[in-house]
Amino acid sequence: MACERERGFIFTGVAYGERVPKDAKFCPWCISEGKAHAGFGASFNLVGTGAPPEAQDEVRFRTPGLVTWQDWDWPTHCSDVAVYLGQPSGDELRANPRALEVLLRDLRQWEWGRDETYVEEFINGLGIREVAYLFECRHCGTQLVCWDQD
Length: 150
Fold this sequence. Notes:
This protein is of the alpha+beta class. It is 31% helix and 17% strand. It has a domain at 68-149. The protein has six helices and seven strands. Strands 5-6-7 form a three-stranded antiparallel beta sheet, with helices on one face. It has a two-stranded parallel ribbon with strand order 1-2.
């Protein structure tokens, strides 16, 4: 750990960086205070373009990463990083029409995403076989959804 203190919580995601030991264990405080980055060059997220450097650094170096199967960039909107709200289930997305529409728009860019039966199975499988990550723009409230599947 960067702080050398037992805190009761350990980040179990991936820390990237050449100097990060393979057995590195960081507490959330070491990450949020920047000690993991300062001591080991650790980064935790990729960030989309358009946000100011300070906001990108906050997400890359001081925000614990999300466990994903595929690498994707932390979303940005209105020239800033978005706020992470959680991993909604299919029912929770259906109850949030703005977020559901964003997810459907993204899925429909893929051939399999135009098959309504498959899309329904995908949404029903959220939290089981697939994962959705819900974000919101801190300025205009736009819902942003990333998704992942193995």
